[in-house]
Write a structure and sequence with these properties.
The complex is a heterotrimer of chains A (256), B (474) and C (219). Chain B has 23 helices and 10 strands. Chain B is α/β, with parallel strands linked by helices and 474 residues long. Chain C starts with a helix and ends with a strand. Classes of the chains: A alpha/beta (256), B alpha/beta (474), C alpha/beta (219). The interface between A and B is large, with 79 and 74 residues.
């Protein structure tokens, strides 16, 4: 890890198998995005393992100040990723929690070394598709104009910057219009959205206005927290723009 | 939450209603962010100078007690009188006793955040001494009887029209004008008279150099130089963390400071003061006093993680880049230091009873961490303070003061469920079946659905879909 | 207040000793590597300072007093504050001709001179120790002969800059000249006329200090 906290992932060999860590939000609200993520990996000839014992990275409790509770949940994950394979996560936020914050969370604990070992194998999905699998997509869909919302933790904790847009730009019929404030937080922030609903509403309001200004039909993102917030606000404001996870969008475009 | 607790949510709610204010901040912060980016366009240079700046600050902290002693010794040798204050009350008393000794009636002030922390103006007024802010932004805010809303640009919450009205209303000789050059010239005329007649000048300190006993101040207006050169007595107030070891540590920190703060390669003036007027010199103050303030900082310093807060060079870039600050503005924080740095500093200085809500005024987006010129892990400290607020302990004043049995139970229940695959799968399957029946009026859901549709639970969880599709488990 | 002193230092020492801190090395290469060749330095200084409204007057060793006088006369400046005891001051006194702005020496302590200084002086002229290419800054060390307020209170500040006294960076200037061995009462970097952006981020020049800064480049 560099001193300012962002990760730079070392290049690794293309593995035969990967683990998929679905995340709790995807599990409950966006399982189709999780399935699409696994499909994309399988399309590239990689064996995907989904450990049924997994649940959550612990971030909700960690960010709320309940570190012991976060540790307990994080610890429960360690058993399910015993192989030496990369762990692919369809969320920059959960990936960031695991790779960046687990080492701190487990500091001084008997299983610290094990937690660090697991954390070191964590990849954000688009980063893995681009950097390790070097995917090339063939667009099968009709022309469409979209925009991209960059998740804060994907950018600033996992160092995911151009990868998702590089993937979207591989799609010949997709016109990607960038947001004016692509990197600005959408106002989700986990419990922030309900602790400070008015500020959160103002933030997502700005994000929605930015999205509308692009004239896009869909806003694509890599994090389900942001998506829940942004598509919730788009729907709540009856805006004709769809929010969609990048895994699902890529799968739709390339798999019929 | 204690009675004295500062209500950020309420204040921010009012700020959000004020479209004028929101517009002022949005425009200003957008401009500052893009201009700063130009200053640091060369990534290699940014990484290099940032690493150097962080190392300077960390080296200073690693030797903090020794450097403060050395600073004291060298200042004393140079003729600068050094005073130590554990609390703001003590610092105010020191300043007052100097004033009373020289029978001061009028004080001109350069910009100083520590003096804001001390509420020095109000204190001096109470003792019959006129204390006049001379930085234009601070002057405007003082005329308006308000607080600064930004540590670098105190009056950023106001637009020209508002300032024009304020000047017309509060300055005798003012004619109404919205011409910025004319407004500025008016302030020049009013304040020049004050500089010429003030008994004491007060300033802050951007950096104090232990090696040479030098006080460094950066500014654009010249009011800092006026305040520290014209009156016969100069009093500088500084937080004890502002010391650096060597003179050569100054250039990188100044470069980071001015580029981060206002996107200038350097400010108009870099003012380095090493002694009062010497024999034969024709101007400059006859006395210089340096007041070194603790006010909780030594407590912050004792904690390995929290002490990183003391790296701060007060550039304010974290404010400019904070999406929460940009929405609500500085006044919502009701603190001398608003924004991200304020949200971690104020709870440590004033205690979590009063300031425990501030670490939650953050989405943890890390925009501040990305641009902090001295690499303060602001968001990690934010998380740590959230934890301290709900767990009794002795690392931070007021630790545990926001503990709630109900909240603790929720997280305990959550962790038990999420740490057990059986319980987790049972609970999530149940939510998939019944979750959508929850009425939008439930607490939390109510706040969420104010501007958003209700989140929809999927019929089947990812776990269930993966099993159905035969995705291997091991 | 030595009680507070000892309490503060004691607390800091205890806190540090319980958790010592090992700082990373300070690598000044990023400053050391900032270099500009030959004429680039002055060009850069001029470009950067002009961007913040500084004016430049090009002249020579022989002509500068006459050129300064002509410049001020053209501006309608009534008088010029100068330090008579410096070498530059001696040149001004001896070469100043009748009919131009009045030369006013900064000869007395400010206590007896303040009223005139604040109310009756249009311009002040000082020497400099050089300029810095990186940031476009003049190095000014006031002295008993050239007091601190000369470059601050008059509405116009003229600064004499020798075209060969240029540095790449602030860091280079202070390390090469070993400033740390003895700092003056006051050392300044001046990078333009006084300015503010405190009213709605609109730049305005001449808020408290000089409204105009004129760099007199002597080749």
């Amino acid at each position: 890890m560099s001193h300012d906290g962002t990760m730079s992932r070392p290049d690794i060999e293309r593995p035969e198998s990967v683990y998929f860590f679905g995340t709790c939000l995807v599990d409950l609200f966006y399982p189709e995005a999780g399935m699409a993520g696994m499909e994309l990996l399988k399309q590239q000839g990689v064996r995907v393992v989904f450990p049924q014992g997994q649940s959550c990275c612990g971030q909700p409790a960690y960010n709320s100040g309940y570190r012991e509770e976060a540790l307990k949940v994080a610890r429960a994950q360690l058993d399910y990723f015993p192989g030496d394979w990369p762990i692919v996560v369809p969320s920059g936020s959960c990936a960031g929690m695991m790779s960046k914050h687990w080492p701190d969370l487990f500091k001084g604990e008997p299983d610290e070394a094990r937690a660090r070992q697991v954390a070191s194998r964590v990849w954000e999905l688009t980063q893995f598709l681009v950097q390790v699998l070097k995917v090339k997509f063939e667009d099968q869909g009709p022309p469409v104009k979209i925009t991209w919302h960059a998740s804060c933790h994907a950018q600033r904790e996992m160092g995911v910057t151009d990868e998702p847009k590089a993937l979207l730009r591989q799609l010949a019929n997709v016109e990607l219009v960038e947001l004016q404030r692509e990197k600005e937080c959408c106002g989700f922030g986990g419990t922030f959205a309900v602790r400070h609903p008015e500020i959160s509403a103002a933030m997502v309001g700005d994000k929605v206005a930015d999205i509308e200004n692009t004239g896009a039909k869909a806003v694509v993102s890599g994090d389900c927290g942001c998506l829940m917030n942004i598509s919730g606000a788009l729907e709540g404001g009856k805006k004709p723009v769809r929010g969609v996870h990048i895994a699902q969008f890529l799968k739709e475009r390339t798999h019929g | 939450m204690g009675e004295t607790s500062i209500n950020f949510a309420k204040a921010s709610s009012a700020a959000l209603q004020d479209q004028q204010l929101r517009g002022n901040f949005r425009r200003a912060m957008d401009g500052l962010m893009s201009k700063r980016a130009v200053q640091f366009a060369d990534t290699a240079e940014w990484n290099g100078v940032r690493a150097l700046g962080a190392s300077v600050r960390l080296r200073a902290l690693s030797k903090l007690p020794e450097l403060l002693e050395k600073l004291e010794a060298n200042c004393t040798r140079n003729g600068i009188q050094v005073h130590w204050a554990s609390t703001t009350d003590e610092a105010n008393a020191i300043v007052l006793s100097i004033m009373q000794r020289v029978n001061a009636k009028l004080v001109v002030k350069g910009k100083s955040m520590v003096s804001e922390e001390m509420h020095l103006n109000a204190f001096l007024e109470k003792h019959g001494i006129e204390s006049l802010e001379s930085d234009l932004g601070e002057y405007i805010v003082q005329l308006d009887e308000a607080m600064p809303s930004h540590i670098i640009m105190p009056a950023i919450h106001m637009n020209t029209k508002q300032i024009a009205h304020l000047f017309k209303q509060k300055i005798k000789e003012a004619e109404y004008t919205e011409d910025v050059a004319q407004l500025t010239d008016l302030a020049r005329r009013v304040l020049r008279k004050k500089f010429a007649t003030a008994d004491v000048g007060i300033s802050g300190v951007n950096m104090a150099v232990a090696e040479t006993g030098t006080l460094c101040l950066v500014e654009n207006e010249g009011n800092g130089r006026m305040s520290t050169t014209v009156p016969p007595v100069h009093i500088a107030v500084m937080g004890l963390e502002k010391v650096v070891e060597k003179l050569e540590d100054v250039p990188p920190v100044i470069s980071l400071l001015t580029r981060s703060a206002t996107a200038q390669p350097i400010t108009t003036y870099v003012n380095m003061i090493s002694s009062p007027r010497k024999e034969g010199e024709k101007d400059g103050p006859n006395e210089i006093h340096l007041v070194i303030l603790d006010n909780g900082r030594s407590g912050i310093y004792a904690d390995e993680e929290l002490r990183n807060t003391l790296r701060c060079i007060r550039c304010g870039a974290c404010m400019n880049h904070c999406p929460v600050y940009t929405k609500v503005g500085g006044h919502a924080y009701q603190a001398p230091y608003p924004g991200p740095i304020g949200s971690i500093l104020m709870p440590q200085v004033e205690g979590l009873e009063k300031r425990g809500e501030l670490p939650h005024a953050c989405t943890m987006c890390n925009a501040c961490v990305e641009i902090c010129p001295v690499k303060i892990p602001i968001v990690e400290i934010m998380g740590r303070l959230r934890s301290e607020a709900v767990h009794p302990g002795d690392a931070v004043r007021g630790a545990g003061s926001h503990a709630s049995k109900a909240e603790a139970m929720v997280w305990k229940g959550w962790s038990m469920t999420y740490a057990s695959p059986l319980a987790y799968q049972f609970a999530t399957a149940l939510l998939a079946k019944l979750g959508n029946a929850a009425p939008a009026s439930l607490p939390l859901l109510k706040e969420w659905t104010n501007v958003r549709s209700k989140p929809r639970f999927a019929n089947r969880t990812l776990h269930a879909l993966a099993r159905e599709k035969g995705i291997p488990d091991v | 207040m030595s009680e507070s002193r000892n309490a503060i230092l004691g607390k800091l020492r205890a806190g540090r000793d319980a958790h010592p801190l090992t700082p990373p090395e300070s690598d000044f290469a990023v400053l050391r590597n900032k270099r500009w060749e030959g004429a680039e330095r002055l060009e850069r200084i001029r470009r950067m300072m002009e961007a913040v409204h500084t004016e430049f007057l090009e002249t020579t060793e022989v002509d500068w007093p006459a050129d300064v006088q002509a410049f001020l006369k053209a501006q309608g400046t009534r008088n010029l504050l100068f330090g008579p005891a410096t070498e530059a001051g001696a040149r001004l006194s001896s070469e100043w001709t009748e009919g131009g702005p009045e030369l006013v020496p900064y000869a007395d302590r400010v206590e007896t001179f303040k009223e005139r200084l604040f109310d009756g002086i249009d311009a002040g002229i000082t020497t400099t120790l050089g300029a810095i290419a990186d940031t476009g800054s003049l190095i000014v060390w006031p002295t008993p002969e050239e007091p601190r307020l000369m470059s601050l209170v008059p509405h116009m500040h003229l600064a004499l800059l020798r075209a060969d006294a240029l540095y790449d960076t602030f860091w280079q200037a202070m390390t090469e000249n070993r400033w740390a061995d003895g700092m003056p009462t006051n050392a300044l970097l001046i990078s333009g006329p006084s300015k503010t952006a405190d009213i709605e981020q609109t730049l305005a020049y001449g808020v408290h200090g000089p409204k105009r800064l004129v760099v007199v480049v002597i080749r």
